[in-house]
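wait is this the right file?? whatever heres the structure
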């Protein structure tokens, strides 16, 4: 009996110790988790995505507003527009309805939209909108401001007889690209009219007018009375054009009406990389299991600065290829930098020629090099071979001498 009671006692004690250890580890894990987040008890913030925007006269404004809860407890946040300029209608909304409050979980955020609509007579100027957020108990308050700058709409240089419009008046891209603007010509005359087409562009630029659906060029466009036609304006910049913004004026003219519209092209420059060796040779001698070094240059032949240039290699199995430096952070136009390729053939590589591809990858530009690596046997084996030959010759000489004495 005493033994059985002792067993029961020790069993209960063991279970108690195990439960205590589990509870301690759970508590410790929770404490560690709380420590990792390191959040304050309560914190909220109201942050518009953009604090200042510029829009043309008569255009609506939609800006995302982020409501963030940076505290350890969930919050109900009441929202209000505390400042709406005269001549505007504004509201905070989601995709379908107006919002006056939002529930935000701990360490998370909700995105809403500030929608502002100008009244018909609202003119150019700066307009301030203020969004305020406050917890239901009033303990926390945060606010964010948005300044909307309305600019005067440029007077259209159109007569009453024809109007030129485009949905995308500004295009951006590299200098060596071909750009295409979509332009609509609206004939406001009561009769069919043939409009002559022309364009003012920088010197040595190529401008062509074409249908949007096929590749053929024309210099005039027939538009039926009180209807419109869409055409494409194809622009090919001069290859040596520098990065920058260039205006292009498109003109349409007939005997009774004329109009023009300004397009803009933002050139980012050209992206081109060159790589090679000073001698032009792309070959290297290497030994099994031993590192060999080859120097090559990388040149930015484009007009745009290249950032974060990386190096890659395609090599035989069990070979090693490293680069010094591992990457080039920035390479200005016409700048040249030297790179070392460290190539180590496999220990079991057979004697012979192998192909190793090196790739230089920049922004929108890649340069590949095909390198021939000739693997030779280790020089130690050459000396061993020479030693064997010397021993064989010495043995033969000794044998001939002995045979001659006999």
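ok assuming it is, sequence goes like this
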């Amino acid at each position: 009996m005493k033994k059985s009671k002792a067993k029961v006692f020790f069993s209960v004690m063991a279970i108690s110790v195990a439960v205590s250890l589990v509870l301690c580890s759970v508590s410790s894990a929770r404490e560690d988790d709380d420590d990792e987040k390191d959040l304050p008890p309560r914190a909220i913030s109201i942050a518009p995505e953009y604090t200042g925007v510029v829009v043309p006269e008569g255009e609506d404004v939609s800006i995302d507003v982020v409501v963030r809860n940076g505290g350890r407890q969930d919050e109900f946040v009441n929202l209000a527009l505390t400042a709406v300029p005269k001549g505007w209608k504004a509201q905070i909304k989601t995709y379908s309805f107006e919002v006056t409050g939002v529930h935000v979980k701990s360490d998370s955020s909700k995105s809403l939209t500030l929608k502002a609509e100008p009244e018909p007579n609202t003119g150019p100027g700066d307009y301030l909108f203020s969004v305020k957020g406050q917890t239901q108990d009033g303990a926390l308050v945060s606010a964010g401001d948005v300044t909307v700058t309305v600019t005067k709409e440029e007077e259209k240089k159109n007569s009453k007889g024809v109007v030129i419009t485009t949905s995308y008046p500004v295009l951006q891209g590299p200098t060596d690209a071909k750009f295409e603007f979509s332009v609509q010509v609206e004939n406001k005359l009561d009769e069919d009219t043939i409009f002559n087409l022309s364009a003012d562009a920088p010197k040595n630029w190529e401008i062509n007018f074409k249908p949007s659906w096929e590749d053929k060029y024309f210099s005039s466009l027939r538009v039926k009375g009180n209807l419109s036609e869409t055409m494409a304006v194809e622009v090919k910049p001069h290859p040596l054009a520098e990065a920058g913004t260039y205006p292009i004026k498109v003109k349409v003219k007939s005997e009774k009406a004329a109009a023009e519209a300004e397009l803009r092209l933002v050139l980012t420059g050209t992206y081109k990389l060159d790589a090679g060796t000073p001698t032009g040779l792309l070959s290297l001698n290497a030994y099994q299991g031993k590192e060999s070094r080859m120097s090559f240059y990388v040149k930015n032949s484009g007009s745009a600065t290249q950032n974060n240039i990386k190096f890659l290699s395609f090599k035989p199995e069990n070979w090693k290829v490293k680069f010094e430096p591992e990457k080039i952070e920035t390479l200005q136009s016409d700048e040249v930098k030297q790179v070392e390729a460290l190539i180590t053939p496999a220990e079991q590589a057979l004697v012979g020629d192998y192909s190793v591809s090196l790739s230089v990858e920049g922004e929108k530009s890649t340069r590949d090099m095909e390198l021939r690596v000739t693997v030779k046997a280790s020089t130690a084996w050459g000396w061993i071979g020479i030693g064997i030959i010397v021993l064989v010759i010495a043995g033969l000489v000794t044998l001939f001498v002995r045979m001659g004495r006999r």
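The chain has three domains: 44-151, 162-267, 273-380. so i think its the right one actually
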